[in-house]
């Protein structure tokens, strides 16, 4: 069979011997329940679908749960476009177009709704309702990457004067925001 | 915005004027319910997700419902790999590797299970249980194509002697099977 | 030289040391005669052109011979389009478009004729004349794959009830056809 | 000649008649001087190289000037990797790896130094010296896109509560920073 | 059918209405005989296979005939690798690796032999025997391009001093060779 | 970080352990001065930018210096298009379109001018002035390849009769030119 079944989930690893491939190499269970590892800062939970078989198939999938009041803050995927279907609940979703427009496309999505995000654009989820929301997201790469904007800006150790200039603010404000990301 | 929002759903059409793009161009509703157009022959229902925005994003999505006793018979997509998550019920799913192995990978999938099919390989769904089954399928192309094997073999008007030789059978058997596909 | 000359014919293997590359790594002989390994079931012979050098060049070639009365039954290549030129004799060739059209494009091809098959579509060769036919086929991938429809349906061990539903026929007919593929 | 010379600079437009193509279609002048349109907010100047000929060649180029004290604030290109050579002066440059590492790679670059940024990663320029700095940047796409993080976050009209949650801060701080971007 | 059948042979033209597509759109006749338009300078004949259907299939084909004593002089294809099978006769074929090796891989090829040329490398055909030779060549692009080195050097109007420096020779020799290409 | 930092500069090698990656893996110094290894035959100097980090980023860069009276003789890159900016001095640059046009696009380029060359087309640099010229060239591949036409024709050991036929000249002239390339 002309399929590379990886022994580990990173793309590019040596393939499993085809003689030892089983149906389970193309299978993953548990997307009907939230994942267990919630973001400490933001309260969302991401459960990645890990199937050894599709390592070279050019797609990956994640179940995302967002509790009431929680956000999956503005982020993007450097190497993938995304679509997602709402499995349960409702969530305020939006994405922002690139420079110089910075135009936001946003609305509340409910169970059975599907939305799409072009490759590399900033998008967010905000559960501003009272019920838990669950989504099933598809990314057009097996190695899409994730950049959370606030983490990249305040969690990487940028000098305060660069941050102040970036946000058109003073050194003190920049430093105070950064403190939350250093703790 | 660097996204081609098509006015019609065929890939390659002229793009919508960016100034007239709205959130709804990236949105589709109704995946929480089965589609309405069931296959007359096989009893499955396919509801394609039609979003104008992701016309160039390299993916497409379909909700598939399979009633008890119904099949989505052996088929393949010439231009896409596939993954699918079971939304409700259970279904016997499998795919077949290529020549000369013709090895089948199959098992029953239940709610929350995900499976993957490499590009162009034959696969099927069979609801051999008693509850309706629903799936959400993702294809790695906005124009994946679909070939149903039995339709291609018996619905295209092949001469009976070619079909008899193909199935290692007699002209009469080939002709009788074909009759069902011509009516 | 920026060419990966593989030691074995599978794509992706470690490359031969460029210092040991010779003209023979880019050469194959014998396409002027039929191959020796005829299909037991169908009577066609396929002689693959095996050149170590073009392992990464994105094409592969095969000489195909079809004896009078023999077929290369309906099949497709999951990862390649195909063109072929008739070297000798004549052959009835056709391909079928995808769902929902299932339209067949077919005619008799003679020496010096060339035909083309889009990627992943079902096609066949049938020598319904009295002279041997020979073709030289080009596939747009070094790893095109091959799926013979009848083998995938009856040679993979599908349950009889799935096959009966697939062909709109009874269990007995499905079982009888399958017996030929199990022997 | 098999080159699409576009009449306008957007990729995908109808090509110029090859008979009317001239050397100037493959030529651009002025990269030896800064561009004239400085960013009002940040003080950097970008001069895009606009050559009609290479519309389909998969690369684009920009001269960037950063005055002492000015920044090209954290940004990324959704569809391109980047390399740049320093033509004059010195500049503090860095990029940040993706989640969950958020590791920064940064140092001062001087005349004749070249740096590279993987596709889609956040990077910045900060002239923390006393001389003007000039760079010549190459992007691996003719349509790379640009997202400036602060603009996407504060210039798109996100609700203040989303911004407060994103930056782990209070509504008032979020609102005050946003005010600068709304004026 | 998801195939673009072009009305003219240039890639990118508007597609034919699928309803008017016929088997002949995927068919070409005459490869069993030499083409009629021999090169005035070199004596080879090239007969391109022109099939409207495979306009987007990523391959093209040409029958090449080389009379005894004639050459298809050193040339390359900017956008394709090549393989070719000898249909009749014998021909001395070779290709040259790139800088700095400039290593030649060459030998005499006879009926039924196949050779391969990596993308963009210089290659030639020389019939140094007494029988006409015929080949069937496959290029891995529908728009491979052709550059004949001597034509590019002497047929484009380069100044004589550039040519003299290029060939490490004197102005007079450069001018004399060029005269043959200007007549 | 999802970047392959190669230990050696050839594409495809095993990646460096991400934990040992440093800013210097994305950095190269010295483009403000000419390289040291001038071509013995032609007098140009090429200084390749060697950055381990961008091994998989799809681009490469070279500083090229051409002394007064020197040439970078007609050559092409089999796997890349090129753009270049003039850093200092002036140079006569041109490229030639493919068969059958062989049309030359050429003019003198000065400091701050940028030119573009479509993939695989023949181009040259000729410093016919009195000042040294320096350029910074960008190629759209990390493995673009280089073929110098005169070297490929006269440095690979082609038989004299093939060369004579190629240049429409006599054996003696072909042999004499070749002698310069064999010494």
SSE layout:
The structure is a homohexamer of 183-residue chains.
Chain A: E1 27-28, E2 44-48, E3 60-66, E4 71-76, E5 82-88, E6 90-96, E7 104-110, E8 114-117, E9 122-126, E10 133-139, E11 147-148, H1 149-154, H2 160-166, H3 171-182
Antiparallel strand pairs in A: 2-3, 3-10, 4-9, 4-11, 5-8, 5-10, 6-7, 6-9
Helix pairs in contact in A: 2-3
Instruction: State the helix count of chain A.
Output: 3
> Average pLDDT value of chain A?
88
CATH architecture of the largest domain in chain A: Sandwich
Q: Kindly, what is the distance between the CA atoms of the first and last residues of chain A, rounded to a whole number of angstroms?
A: 50 Å
Beta-strand content bin of chain A: 25-35%
Oligomer: homohexamer
Q: What would CATH call the homologous superfamily of the largest domain in chain A?
A: Jelly Rolls
Largest interface: A-D, 52 and 52 residues
SSE string of chain A: EEEEEEEEEEEHHH
Number of domains of chain A: 2
Main-sheet strand order of chain A equals 2-3-10-5-8
Which stretches of chain A are low in confidence, meaning pLDDT under 50 for 5 or more residues running?
7-13
Return Rg of chain A in Å: 19 Å
Q: Quick one: biggest sheet of chain A?
A: 5 strands, antiparallel
Shape of chain A: globular
SS class of chain A: alpha+beta
Helix content of chain A: 10-25%
């Amino acid at each position: 069979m002309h399929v590379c079944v990886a022994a580990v989930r990173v793309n590019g690893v040596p393939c499993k011997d085809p003689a030892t491939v089983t149906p389970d190499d193309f299978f993953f269970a548990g997307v009907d329940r939230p994942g267990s590892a919630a973001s400490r800062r933001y309260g969302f939970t991401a459960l990645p679908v890990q199937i050894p078989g599709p390592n070279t198939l050019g797609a990956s999938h994640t179940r995302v749960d967002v509790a009431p009041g929680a956000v999956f803050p503005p982020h993007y995927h450097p190497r993938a476009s995304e679509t997602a279907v709402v499995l349960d609940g409702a969530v305020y979703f939006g994405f922002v177009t690139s420079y110089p427009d910075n135009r936001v496309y946003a609305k509340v999505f409910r169970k059975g709704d599907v939305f799409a995000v072009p490759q590399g654009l900033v998008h967010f989820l905000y559960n501003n309702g009272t019920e838990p929301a669950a989504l099933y997201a598809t990314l057009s790469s097996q190695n899409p990457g994730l950049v959370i904007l606030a983490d990249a800006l305040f969690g990487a150790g940028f000098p305060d004067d660069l941050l102040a200039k970036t946000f058109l603010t003073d050194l003190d404000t920049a430093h105070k925001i950064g403190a939350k990301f250093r703790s």
